[in-house]
Recover the amino acids of this structure.
């Protein structure tokens, strides 16, 4: 397998006149060991249709192509999107027909923009939008059954945090609606060009059914957002405007079997589903 190293990444960027931008989270992996590790930990199979967000210069794409049925790569930067098929045709002609490039914003991409239904997500996500992109894909692509993403280390910790921990919060709860989420190892900053000023981490996701509830996903997420907008307050106080009054919040909590003096960080997503279900209707 031919992969991109530091020399190839810089040469490609220079050829395209690319000056990596922070705005688009453009830190390209220059280490073959890291992309091989990502593919191994992702546990993709030859039947998988992988969606990769932000393929950049193709570091991870080249490691994925020999292992899966297809890679659908969604890239926002037009120069990078146009170059990727050329890079792959040159470096791995045998598997080039497995690649589809979609020039789009991953935050807005819809299922109709994709040439095939992805079964797995494998991506070194753009760090400034990693959580919204992840949640958007989990929502619009029920066919995704697993994922392995690289994100900022702190975000990896938040996504995989368990109730009761200091960093547990909105990303942990919303991701848990869709999947079992685990940390899958650290990644140092020196495997990137340019090197970011934070470390990274791998996160693995395995799809599971959301908690059973008569509330909609939007209603459950609204309760989560309300609880964490004032995370230091008790749920009775934090959910007062969400429910109408503190008394209505208390009623919803009691009916949901949740102690009104508890705080949001102590609850799991199933608790929020019950709270949303018991919100007093006007
Ligand atoms: N996968 C490549 C690698 O590992 O070397 C590049 C990863 S780099 C961290 C993030 C990539 O996401 C960049 O190529 C950037 O242009 C792209 N990107 C940023 N925002 C995006 C968005 N909203 N939708 C799609 N791609 C985006």
């Amino acid at each position: 397998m031919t992969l991109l190293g530091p020399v190839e990444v810089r040469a490609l960027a220079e050829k395209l006149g690319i000056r990596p931008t922070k705005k688009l989270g453009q830190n390209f992996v220059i280490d073959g060991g890291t992309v091989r590790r990502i593919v191994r930990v992702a546990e993709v199979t030859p039947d998988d249709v992988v969606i990769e967000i932000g393929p950049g210069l193709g570091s991870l794409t080249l490691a994925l192509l020999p292992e899966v049925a297809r890679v659908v790569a969604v890239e926002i930067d037009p120069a990078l999107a146009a170059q990727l098929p050329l890079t792959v045709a040159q470096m791995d002609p045998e598997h080039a027909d497995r690649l589809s490039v979609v020039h789009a914003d991953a935050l807005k991409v819809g299922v109709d923009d994709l040439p095939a239904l992805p079964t797995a997500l494998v991506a070194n996500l753009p760090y400034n939008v990693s959580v919204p992109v992840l949640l958007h894909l989990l929502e619009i692509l029920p066919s995704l059954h697993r994922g392995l993403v690289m994100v900022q280390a702190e975000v990896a910790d938040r996504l995989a945090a368990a109730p009761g921990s200091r960093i547990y919060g909105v990303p942990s709860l919303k991701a848990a609606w869709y999947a079992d989420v685990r940390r899958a190892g650290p990644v140092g900053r020196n495997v990137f060009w340019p090197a970011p000023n934070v470390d990274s981490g791998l996160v693995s996701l395995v799809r599971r059914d959301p908690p059973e509830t008569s509330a909609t996903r939007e209603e459950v997420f609204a309760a989560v957002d309300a609880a964490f907008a004032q995370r230091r307050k008790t749920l009775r106080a934090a959910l007062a405007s969400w429910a109408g009054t503190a008394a209505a919040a208390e009623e919803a909590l009691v009916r949901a079997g949740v102690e009104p003096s508890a705080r949001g960080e102590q609850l799991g997503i199933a608790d929020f589903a019950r709270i949303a279900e018991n919100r007093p209707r006007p």
